[in-house]
Amino acid sequence: MKRFVLTMAVLALAASVQAAPITFSTGLSGAIEVPPNASTGFGSATVIIDDDADTMRVIVNFGGLIGNTTASHVHCCTAVAGAGTIGIATELPSFTGFPLGVQSGSYDHTFDTSLAATWNAGFMAANGGTPEGAADAFLAGMFAGKAYLNVHSSFAPGGEIRGFLAVPEPATLSLLGFGLVGALLRRRRR
């Protein structure tokens, strides 16, 4: 009976965890660009993925740029975690409504990951040709540390500031662990 109660408790926790959004955050700087640049720019970015709701919320705050913004998006998936460059995964040429032509600003927008318009067509084609395939590859790249948010400018057309979105906040990572345990127990039971 104890084992049954423990299993049920873990399954209940796992069911509630599966609905939890996953939050990735990073600092943005020119030192992380490839090649690194002397930008005085700084910023932060948060990407919140809610797989159950098919949403991706992107929050960016930045300032001190040398050039005026020309684009911003997420690149995925580099060959090595936390390093290198790769093509753009999200919409082109820039996030919908991202402040362009400025040296500082804020951005907060929620995308529907089930829509093809959220994804770069090339990224989507390389990942099953569907928004679902793109969303799955994107999330895998985020967990693997192979995705970065980039803010491009007139000073640095290839990117003035960026940061890798590799590390979920510790609470999310713990919840994900509980969810995986619950899923394994559920599969084992079947």
Give the topology, please.
Elements: H1 2-18, E1 22-29, E2 42-50, E3 55-63, E4 69-76, E5 105-112, H2 121-126, H3 131-143, E6 147-153, E7 161-164, H4 170-189
Helix pairs in contact: 1-4
H-E order: HEEEEEHHEEH
CATH topology: Immunoglobulin-like
Low-confidence stretches: 1-17, 183-187
For the termini, the CA-CA separation is 18 Å
The CATH architecture name reads Sandwich
How many strands, which pairing sense, and closed or not: the largest β-sheet? 4 strands, antiparallel
Helix content: 25-40%
User: Strands of the biggest beta sheet: in what spatial order?
Assistant: 1-2-3-5
Number of helices: 4
Choose one word for the global shape.
globular
C-alpha Rg (nearest Å): 18 Å
Total discrete domains:
1
Number of separate strands: 7
Task: Please report the first level of CATH classification, the CATH class.
Answer: Mainly Beta
Structure description:
- The chain is of the alpha+beta class and 190 residues long.
- The chain has a single domain, classed as Immunoglobulin-like (Sandwich).
- The chain has helices at residues 2-18, 121-126, 131-143, 170-189, and strands at 22-29, 42-50, 55-63, 69-76, 105-112, 147-153, 161-164.
- α1 packs across α4.
- The longest helix has 20 residues, at 170-189.
- The relative contact order is 0.23.
- The model is unreliable at 1-17 and 183-187 (pLDDT under 50).
